[in-house]
Write a structure and sequence with these properties.
single chain; alpha/beta; TIM Barrel; 10 helices; 8 strands; binds zinc ion
Length: 272
Amino acid sequence: MALAPLVDGHTHIDQYGPDEQSGLLMRAREAGVGLIIAAGTTLASCSAVLRLAESEPLVRAGVGLHPQDLADWVDDATVTRLRHLARRPRTVEWSETGLDYQPSSPRWDLQQDAFRRQARLARDLGLPMVVHSREADADMLRLLREEGVREVGGAWHYFQGDRALAEQVLELGFHISLAKPLLRSPEMQAVVATLPLERIVLETDSYPQPFKKNRMAWTEPWQLPQVAAKVAELQGVAIECVAEATTANYLRMLRGRVPAGELSTSPHGADR
Ligand SMILES: [Zn+2]
């Protein structure tokens, strides 16, 4: 049985230079990745991910403002610009947005206001939200509830929480997005073993990592099958089941914005 094309639901591949794109996308396709979503973090990067999504069949865009990249309060002009970018046909979700309470992050009230404004836009446009939460889980859950984000659904990106957090995320109707930390964390592995497969999605969060000397060790979408294989092992099912389920989950979350027939299939097809 051939593996269903995988969906890498959260990346920053636009940050790889233009000369890197064709190699990165070729390696992804050869590894069986059939769709990559590139998430914007600022107005400029939202335009960049859209340019990439509009020129590469494998790529779609997410539009959003990353909490760590907020320089100021989100004003009406920014909201108008975001709305315009979010309406482009290759934009399929609201991403990246959320809350980040590290000491170096922007002030919390500013982040919360920016998130609320984005949640209202996402609901208005019917786009699922992919959220980032760092040291801010209680507020993130509260804002998702208060803003009624359940209506559009979405995913908790780069999930690294415990069972209690997973239950609250599932309770909100959200998906749990798993990335490479799963490969090395026994605590996470224990949580993932008990999650419903129909609520799991996969991602790499790829971005250039020049701090790693070996270029092939930089996180890229071609490594996504490693996460799928680990989920399969933990859930006690075949990797084919995980590929099929996580791809179906993602496409369902996108509500038809990417029909299954538009996924790229591996050049090796059934031989893989
Ligand atoms: Zn990200």
